[in-house]
Amino acid sequence: MAPHHGADRWWLSGQANVIFQGDLPFHSPYEGTNSFRNAAEYKTSLLGTLYGVLRPTRSIRYSTDLILDLESSGGRGLSEALGLAGFTNLDVVRNPNLGSTPYIARYGIHQVIGLTKETTSQEPGFFAVAPSVPVRRIEFRIGKMTLPDFFDVNSIGSDSHLQFMNWTVDNNGAWDYAADTRGYTVGGMAEYDDRSWSLRYGLFAMPTVANGIDMDWAFSRAHAQNGEFELRHSFIPRRKGTERLLFFANRAHMGTYREAVDAFLYGADQSLPAPNILLHEHFGALKYGFGYNAEQELTENLRVFGRFGWNEGQHESYVYTEVDQTAEAGADYTGTRWRRPADKIGLAVVSNAIKRDHQNYLRLGGLGFLLGDGNLNYGRENIVESYYTLHAWRGLFYSVDVQHINDPGYNRDRGPVWVGSVRAHIDF
To answer: Measuring CA to CA, which residue among 351, 280, 291, 268 is closest to residue 315?
Structure first.
């Protein structure tokens, strides 16, 4: 709302994002504990963040940033954020009982070690304040952070404040990235940056239970490894383009769907009303996968992007959402043609899937931390989302958004679901 101070030693800013969502009734012959409700409802979420960075020295080659962010996440999601693998509002906390009390979202140290005296300019922001950085450099980050700030970033489909809102549009749904209920973890990462490519790797804490708020600090038995290779090149001359290849490997106290199903059908759990994966968790269980992420500028105003993600699907979905495989494509277009260069319109299509063991678990009435209709007639969860963001004045933006979800929670017996949204965003 006001110009930044322009200094290169500190940064102080904030944002507020308010999303109002509503859905219409839809076909639903039955509902379960974790179903997306078929009655019309509306909910509002509010996410506010205060960003602070201090840069102790003026050195460019050996720049240091000290980061501290405070945040408050209030309101609730439709159906308490249950029943959809690709939920419709990324700002919603998956455990509404945590409330809106402010908390420390990020803290840490960012250290740049330059490998050359040659520099290139960068836009100062709340992750790095220096106006320029060495062309070749190593960067270290340690502290509390959210992994999508640095991995699987996509300038067209990563920002729930001004772009898309769906969980599996803004992030790779098959990437079960380390996080507590609010989306944050503690750990460290290293990154090497060159002129046209980057390589990053990080080690982070995992929660003690699926979708839990408490972290397991015994890194020997529970941790998440994440690595990504980024190549900045374009298929079209004089246009920007980037490709990223991501991998992850999580170790935590996880169960397997097949073990839970077999115990329910043939073993010790036959007296239970449904299989329960919580009874079959083991320390050190491994869940792994990979993702691909690309973006390409086609014209001055038109950009396209896409993602593909896969994980092994045998172990329970643990920290992000219940997706074992995902494919996504989309685009955005700026409003220069109608004399509104800060406006933007976007369209994305994503298709999510789960493996056979995961399907059988839900079909027999099992509950994940997000899904559980009590039965399942399996089909891919297909989502189409479109938005228009209007720049009103300085740092104030308004958006309208529509999402269509076919086979919600992978269930052909239910849906389709229509969700409409209105968003107000302010940067200050």
So the answer is: 280
